[in-house]
Batch of 2 targets.
Target 1
Amino acid sequence: MARLEILEYPDKRLRLRAEPVEKVDDTVRTLVSDMLDTMYAAAGIGLAATQVNVRKRVLVIDVSETRNEPHVLINPEIVHAEGKLSSEEGCLSVPDVFDYVERAERIKATYLDRDGQPAQLEAEDLLAVCVQHEIDHLDGKLFVDYLSELKRQRLKKKAFKKVRRSANEVPPRQSISARLI
Ligand code: NI
């Protein structure tokens, strides 16, 4: 069991594109297990390998209230998307920022499971949003990229200021209904 460090905006490593996993071996399974530990410890509902500085197309998600229904998607691809849904998103890599992003309402994704077996996931609402948000991470994209230029400039200023201020000083996390993905 291990908790990994989560990279935070504006860290440039969050912009790197993850590579497909060629073989689902024990190294990948250990990564998956560490990512699940990290996600649960951070009270997040999703985490992509990019966020823990690993450039592999691996993501973990758990949107259940009981926190015991993990989805593990390796080399995920969205093969079908329909509908539109705007919901408030937050991200473990962009602390204290929450905003509305429009995504597909329903998706179908293909992926490899923890045993390397091909699998499919049909998802809607929160789970669908989460899969899209995490796949974006694997492509080096953050949810704040969807916000207006003005909002992004403000955010950048704030983030740089915070980095300069202190690396140890952690501002209190806002309690807000949006979940961290
Ligand atoms: Ni995120």
Target 2
Amino acid sequence: MAIPELQWAQVNEGGRLHFKQIPVPKPGKGEVLVNILYSGVCHTDFHALNGDWPFPPNDPLIGGHEGAGVVVSKGELTEGIEIGDKVGVKWINNICLKETTYCVPRRNSLAIPRTGHSSVGASSVLSDPSLANRMGTEYCLAQAATVARIPDGCNMAAVAPILCAGITVYKGLKTSECKPGQTVAIVGAGGGLGSLAQQYAKAMGLRVIAIDGGEEKGKMSLEELGADTYIDFLKSKDIVNDVKKATADGLGPHGVILVSTSPKPFEQASEYVRPNGTVVPIGLPPDANIKASVFWGVLKMLRIKCSYVGTRRDTAEALDFFARGLIKAPYKLIGLGQLQEVYALMEKGQVLGRYVLDMSK
Ligand code: NAD
Ligand code: ZN
């Protein structure tokens, strides 16, 4: 297949998206060029666009970090990866290879070069870190050692959301240390991460309390995703009591997975998690704080363990669950030119499951 000189991309410049053509990069040492077929739209990219976090993102910046595609060319030192291989490109797209999500030489979609921030380091590896390595494009550079191997037979559109949302919630559930038969509350259950979290939790033998807003999300959680209970935070008058009541003994869930995009649940979860339970903050709403009473926290022996994407091992495990047909979360396909429409829905909290960009549209 001939690789074009130019490609379409959604470029965030000055806090606005510009749909335009940019050069297709060439892979350097240790890099592969991936023809992105599908790319999931994660709320993280919308946070970056809005400047929601304590540091400014690169400008220009191309979002997208759930890319599923095919290797179309490769640089030197990429043994083991061949042209034609099906791979996934993730949020952490360049690491020191010591199996951590927090090594210094790594790159994520914020790719802030030369600032000393945690996302830096490898800016020298790729020629143009802000533009070259993202999945809001048709072609994207990736570190050969960091790409995920997509198992044979996977539906490439359906697998795309696993590459951030799936890995992240799978790792979060492991972090909660919930055991089969125990109960986990998933807060933000109707969104991209939440819908996958419900599926992974069921596959891991857990009972699920899904918490989100609106009837559609309740219907999807109970009828499609296997939740045991749905609590509508827009209707509940006492969310702490409602969550506790949803467990058979009234003591609350053993784990809480926080993937909501608003801060309130991060202040409430410590009140309804059961004694010895674990609260796992994952969502990244702006200006959010985790809150817990010291007195009740000590008496309950509360654990709060934040969780950040996942390692290469978590990736392989999360993909294995998917390849075995255990994870079927709803997604809708749209064209790259329609990205702004998804962001508008995200802003209103109206995304049901995941939107996936179909690069052929
Ligand atoms: P999304 O927009 O698809 O879903 C967010 C959901 O939260 C929506 O369904 C919304 O209705 C719900 N919500 C908002 N306020 C709520 C409340 N008070 N109670 C219950 N539910 C509420 O977003 P997403 O793509 O699933 O991402 C979720 C969050 O996870 C984002 O903040 C994202 O940046 C973050 N994230 C973190 C990591 C990590 O490694 N820690 C990885 C990926 C995404
Ligand atoms: Zn993400």
